[in-house]
Amino acid sequence: MAAPKQFSSSMLTPNKTVLVRGNLGYNNLTRPYTGDELERRNKEAQLRGRNGYSPTAHEVVDVTIHNPQVIPANPTQMTLEEAYVNERFYQSAKNGLSYGITRTNSGVPAIGIMTDGVHATEIVPPEGYVVGNPVVTLVVRTFSTKAGRGGMTLDAVIFNEEPSFASGGNRVKSQLEEHGIIWTSLPTELESAGAMEVPTPAAIPAPPVVQAAPTMPAQPIQAAAPVTPAMPTPQQAYVPPANIPPQVMEAASQAASLYEAPVATQPKPGIRYDAM
Question: What confidence tens digit (pLDDT) does each residue in 256-273 have?
Fold first, then answer.
């Protein structure tokens, strides 16, 4: 049974800031719970005897730190609000002294990193979850509810060291394992929740240049006329020039007489009687 508290929410003054430092634990800093996931987590909290999220909540960021320590504005004395937060530390069977804070219907908190112990620079984290348990400082603020009671919300998370982030699908798996549920394979909707690098598609090569078909002549090509082989002409009688000496002419005549061109025998009309 929890020990009675000395400070109640009705004692809080609105818009007071409390800094709490510790090792980051269970959280969904980069993506609020919404819809079916929010409803499921509410039911899980009720089954374990814990207070669920507000009935009016439609998105929730839930952050837990381990080994928490309030960083008072005045090191010599805590304010009432700082004492209120310090009184809400609790013992976890798994992680020891812990502290949890939620942010409702306001998106994700501001996220920053300490640069020199005095200055903090805001960063925009990628999708996914924080790897490991880095030291962080929670910036918690008080506010007044419509019912007249005081409440506390998370304004910012400042990393005291450079954070590392991983894909969201494994985050859901690890969280469910903390509740005793082990996935044999991740559902498609959980795999798609992780941050994945879409490979840049390769450049599409330009289509090859199509050579134009050769232009056909306007007039159709005429077929070549068949070549008729030249027939040999009958040997012409040699007519000597007038100035050739008689001796040369005689020699040429004798040489020509040695060759006699064949003459085709023409049949004579009528009836031929062969001699017996």
Answer: 555 555 555 555 555 454
Residue 275 has pLDDT above 50, yes or no: no
- pLDDT per residue as tens digits for the range 145-193: 877 778 999 999 999 988 888 865 555 566 666 677 766 654 444 444 4
Query: In the chain, count of helices (H) and strands (E)?
Result: 5, 11
The amino acid occupying position 14 is P
| Residue 41 CA: distances (Å) to CA of 79, 100, 141 | 33, 15, 24
**22 backbone dihedrals φ, ψ, rounded to 5°:** 180, -175
Give me the residues paired with residue 27 across strands: 63
Which stretches within the chain are classed as H helix? 35-47, 80-87, 168-178, 188-191, 246-257
Q: What are phi and psi of 110, to 5 degrees?
A: -65, 145
Give the range with max mean pLDDT: 122-136, 157-171, 202-216: 122-136
Q: CB count, 10 Å around CB of 157?
A: 26
Sign (positive/negative) of CA torsion 232, 235, 241, 244?
positive
Q: Identify the residue whose tokens are 């510790």.
A: 22
Count of beta carbons in the 10 Å neighbourhood of residue 73: 14
HSE, side-chain direction, 13 A CA sphere, residue 45: 12
Say what the pLDDT of residue 170 is: 52
Query: Per 3-state DSSP, what percentage of the chain is helix, strand, and coil (rounded to 5)?
Result: 20, 25, 55
* Residues in Cβ contact with 2 at an 8 Å cutoff, skipping those fewer than 6 apart: 90
C-alpha separations of 94 from 23, 25, 26, 91, 98 in Å: 14, 11, 12, 9, 10
